[in-house]
Amino acid sequence: MKKAFDTEILSVGTELLLGRVTNTDARDISEMLSKIGINVKYHTVVGDNPERLRACVEIAKQRADIIVTTGGLGPTCDDLTKQVLAESFGLRLVKNEDEDRGLFEYIRTGRGLTPNVHQQALLPEGCTVFHNLWGTAPGCAFEAEGKFVVMLPGPPKECVPMFAACAVPWLKKLSDEVIVSHSVCVFGIGESAVDDLFADEMNRMTNPTMAPYAKECDCLLQITAKAESEEKAEAMIAPVMAHVKERLGDYVYGTDLSCVEEAVMALLKEKNLSFAAAESCTGGDIARRFTELPGASAFFKGGVVSYVNEVKESMLGVDAAVLAEKTAVSREVAAAMAEGVRARLKTDMAVSVTGLAGPDGDGVHEVGTVFIGLAVEGQTFVRETHMGRNRTRSFIRRMAGNHAFDMMRRWMSGLPVEDR
Question: Of all helices (H) and strands (E), which one includes residue 204?
């Protein structure tokens, strides 16, 4: 078995340090490296400063076998990654004639690029060149002083496809193992509770391993195995996944999903059902989230954003007397909103949300009080939630949407709907 190689991802760019750009390159590269069995041990971000970059490279050489850089390969005066890396490993920069001709053609076609773009064709001597099909700056890879170095452009639309198409094949020679991960997606129980359930097991495990991760309004338990083949890793994960799902029960909404609405979409397809939404404090966010999924139009008929009482009355048929007596933030109004939008849009199901996302209350309920309704033929459910008055508006709105999707998921799965 080949040795385990440790990797440091060195992201270069002052814009990353200033927070103007999110460093998605490091995240995406880490994920791709894990799939070929290469461990990422460090993420480092440094600005466009040659002295600091040089210091970071020296540190990386001491603690990593593989150094992956992103950014700093362009034509401007602050694009210094190649120069610093070549100097650090004692390599000359030489013009790659093929890349230089390609850049000339790019300029000649009238794209308005200036002559300094040609410095992008200067590459470390003896390197493997990664031609940039997605932009101008080529990437490259080389081995020197017992280290493996990969340099990539910074823009994600160039960096990620280049890494997948060029760097991954180059690096695969270093590992004879693969890493496989699957996520058990959970709603209705928090990360700390999941950790408490499995803490003893997680502390004993070495391969596979388990780890809980909190998302904004739900969480997941990630199970990871390393083996000499994907099939063997999957076989190691399978019994652990089965155990986790059995223990977490109906809190589990799926596997390897990014959000609970994906689970709802799958059930709607399976059962050929439709739904509509009546939203107050979520302001249409439930509709927005669901319609971002491809194929949503086959199941989602539409929605009503009834932000004020007059719209609840006129568009959804909520009784004015109920609004006056119970207030808009109430179990009764949530039920009436769901029933009203289901009747008007003639759907199998309908969800509703009414509550207080803040910053102000209504004199009766505290901020974070939200009622979520679900209407189906012959039955209406309402879930009352109290999310806390110190929560942000965005958290309350997203959590309310998660509850609405969770209620739909539970009803379609034959599970208890209201309690959570």
Answer: helix 191-204
